[in-house]
Each structure stands twice: as structure tokens, then as C-alpha cells.
Automatic annotation (TrEMBL):
Pfam families in the record: efThoc1
Protein name in the entry: Uncharacterized protein
Organism: Rhodosorus marinus
Domain of life where this protein originates: Eukaryota
One Gene Ontology cellular component annotation held by this UniProt entry: THO complex part of transcription export complex
Single Gene Ontology BP annotation: mRNA export from nucleus
InterPro entries linked to this entry: THO_THOC1 (IPR021861)
Length: 297
């Protein structure tokens, strides 16, 4: 039916909204497993759909609105695969210069709040461990609000916590790296913050890698906003570049693929600066027409 609707719409033999209405009805009525199969069908026909005469008009926003509403229904923990299919479908159907998919103002996800124990209970945890525990999880507030760390006084506090956490990582051997194989299901996670688990988490390479990547993202933000000289004086030991090197060194030490992962993060941040410059310049289209082929005589 979908093929017939697309074919008729492309020939102007039916309402051009018909394929998009069918897509919207299917998304809102099917279960998640069925929607995943629907995405496979749409992906195979994405180019045909995007070439329909009305796709660049109202239909484009209908598709966008439908998929955004669908993503709101999904769980970020258990429905990551189908969420990925939806985002991939949007990336396939919309041009790279589509502004509706760009976080132009650089907003952070402030709804992601980490709660943890704020007082030591009778569990027998050592005082030193609990102090490190509170510093560790308290740092999440600043990692999710990087713009707060632009203040030098806040950076001093964050820097102290980061140093203590990295010292704890360096003093705790990695007990488990949980290197993912091809059959392991990937899930988004929200780590538990029970004080009883803290020492075990410090030795978990999977957990450690997530925290260190958060550090890199924060440091990258501070580099982008170009802090004043007094905040990142090269004569001080806690410069952004020094901390960045220490974080990368810790990433390299996690499992057999540590160096590969660290190199990948460095490359990702390198390419990100081009995206940042593109956004700052107003997301100008950079699609280019194919170069015509001229047969040699």
C-alpha cells in the first residue's frame, strides 16, 4: 500500500499528503517491534519519498513532528535501538543543512539530574571513601551544566574534584573492562549511586570510561569558550591541556582497546570544531551538485 501511495502521489493521481498520512497513522498505532519493521520499509523508500513534490513543504514538518512525538514515547534505556532507527531515518530524509535538527543555541539536557546519598549511613563505609563519593557524584551537576564552570571560582572547585577522582582511578586497578562483542546489546545507562557500590564502580572500566569522556566534553567546552588568561594560565599545573592529557592517559589504560578509544575521541573532537564553526556561521548549506562526467576522447 505504501508503494502504491508513493507511486500515485509522484504521478499526481492522488492527494500528495497520502503517503505521509499513512506513515503518521502507522507510527501512532503500531507497537515498537512493528515500528522497527516499518522503519526498514521507509528507509528503503526514503529517497523516493523525499523526491515527492510536497516533501519540502508541509509534509517535511509532518514527518518531523511525527518522529519527534514517537521519540518522546520511547524509553531512553530500553528502546535505544528503535530510537536510533528513527534518528537514522530523519538523517536519511533530511539534508545535513536542515536547521531543525541542529541545537543552534547549545542547550544542555538539564532534566538529567543525578541524585546520591548526602550523608554517611551506618553501612560502615570509610569516611575518606564517602568524601570521595560525594565529590564524585556531586561533580555531575557541573558536567551537565558546563557553562557554570566558565566561572573561574567554579572551575577551581571542579578541578580539585577532577584531580581527586583521577587519583582514585590511578590508584584502583581496572577489574573489568567488559569489552563489547558483536552480540552484546547496547543500552543507554543511568549508573547507580549507592555508596556501597562506589569502590566496585571505580574498578569498572566501562564505568570509568563514561566518566572520563564526560571530563573530555567539559574540557572541550572550556576550550571553545576561550577562557580568559587568568583562568587558564599556562604557568599553572591545572591548565585545561594538562588535565586533558591526564584524562587521555587514563583512557588509554582501560583494556586492550584503550588507545584506540582515546584516539577515536580525539578525532571526534577534532571534527566537532568544524561543526561548531558551521553552526556559528548560520548552518549554510554545503551540499554540492555531482561533478558531471566527461568522457575522454
Amino acid at each position: 500500500m505504501l508503494d502504491a501511495a508513493i507511486d500515485l502521489a509522484s504521478r499526481n493521481l492522488t492527494d500528495p499528503e497520502t503517503p505521509f498520512n499513512m506513515f503518521q497513522d502507522a507510527i501512532t498505532s503500531l507497537s515498537f517491534p512493528e515500528v522497527s519493521r516499518l522503519f526498514a520499509m521507509i528507509e528503503a523508500r526514503a529517497k523516493r519519498i523525499s523526491r515527492l513534490s510536497n516533501f519540502q513543504g508541509s509534509a517535511k514538518f509532518d514527518v518531523l513532528r511525527t518522529l519527534v512525538e514517537f521519540l518522546r514515547r520511547c524509553s531512553r534505556v530500553s528502546d535505544t535501538a528503535v530510537c536510533g532507527r528513527a534518528l537514522t531515518l530523519l538523517a536519511t530524509m533530511f539534508p545535513l543543512s536542515e536547521k531543525s535538527a541542529v541545537n543552534l543555541r547549545g542547550h544542555y539536557n538539564l532534566s538529567n539530574i543525578t541524585t546520591f546519598a548526602d550523608h554517611e549511613d551506618a553501612s560502615g563505609s570509610a569516611v575518606a571513601d564517602f568524601k570521595l563519593y560525594t565529590k564524585f557524584w556531586g561533580l555531575q551537576k557541573y558536567l551537565s551544566r558546563a557553562y557554570d564552570v566558565e566561572d573561574y571560582a567554579v572551575w577551581e572547585k571542579v578541578y580539585e574534584s577532577m584531580q581527586q577522582i583521577m587519583e582514585a582511578f590511578e590508584g584502583t586497578p581496572v577489574a573489568s573492562t567488559r569489552e563489547a562483542d558483536g552480540n552484546e546489546e547496547k543500552r543507554a545507562v543511568k549508573f547507580l549511586t549507592d555508596p556501597q557500590l562506589f569502590r566496585l564502580q571505580l574498578g569498572d572500566g566501562f564505568f570509568r570510561r563514561h566518566i572520563l569522556v564526560q571530563f573530555l566534553i567539559l574540557l572541550r567546552h572550556l576550550r571553545i569558550v576561550q577562557k580568559p588568561e587568568e583562568a587558564f594560565d599556562s604557568s599553572k599545573s591545572h591548565t585545561e591541556s594538562a588535565v586533558n592529557r591526564r584524562v587521555l592517559s587514563l583512557l588509554d589504560s582501560i583494556g586492550p582497546s584503550g588507545k584506540t578509544f582515546g584516539t577515536g575521541m580525539t578525532r571526534a573532537f577534532y571534527w566537532e570544531k568544524h561543526w561548531i564553526a558551521w553552526k556559528a556561521n548560520g548552518c549554510k548549506p554545503f551540499d554540492r551538485a555531482p561533478v558531471p562526467f566527461e568522457a575522454s576522447e
